[in-house]
């Protein structure tokens, strides 16, 4: 009786070992390694962290000139829920500001408008707008009394 019990336990171990070996061969044949599994887990974790960071549209405004200041800066973020605006008589350049617009409504960001004037001693001034790191509008103006105007409006369809 003892012998048949040992044979059954040995038989179960054999089948379990055979099943595990088959699974390892299957994963290896698919090109999957233990390192791939760890990398996939890390990738999923980084995607979750990015999702927390990107709960909104990131709007970046950049103003540059060939001198260290500009004047009459006007930034208007026309968001459906929380519109924002900035007005400065004089700014130091390069000037950069970041706004985060929540994505919790349909078409959360309607438009972004930037206007800046070059100082009297400047030969040029420029502005640019980025949405989530992608350049969506830019303008560079040269000469005396130069004004740079950047605007991005939401529109359905191409454009």
Largest β-sheet summary: 4 strands, antiparallel
Helix amount: 25-40%
Strand content: over 45%
Count of DSSP H/I helices: 2
Write down the secondary-structure element order.
HHEEEEEEEE
- Return residue spans where pLDDT drops below 50 for at least 5 consecutive residues: 46-52
- From the N-terminal CA to the C-terminal CA, the straight-line distance is 83 Å
Order of strands across the biggest sheet? Answer: 4-1-6-7
Number of strands: 8
Overall pLDDT metric: 82
Sheet/helix structural class: alpha+beta
Could you tell me the radius of gyration in angstroms? Answer: 30 Å
Shape: rod-shaped
Task: Walk me through the structure.
The strands form two sheets. Strands 4-1-6-7 form a four-stranded antiparallel β-sheet, with no helix packed on it. A four-stranded antiparallel β-sheet has the order 3-2-5-8, with no helix packed on it. 30% of the residues lie in helices and 45% in strands. The termini are far apart. A hairpin with a 2-residue loop joins strand 6 and strand 7 (134-142). It contains two helices and eight strands. With 159 residues, the protein is α+β, with helices and mostly antiparallel strands.
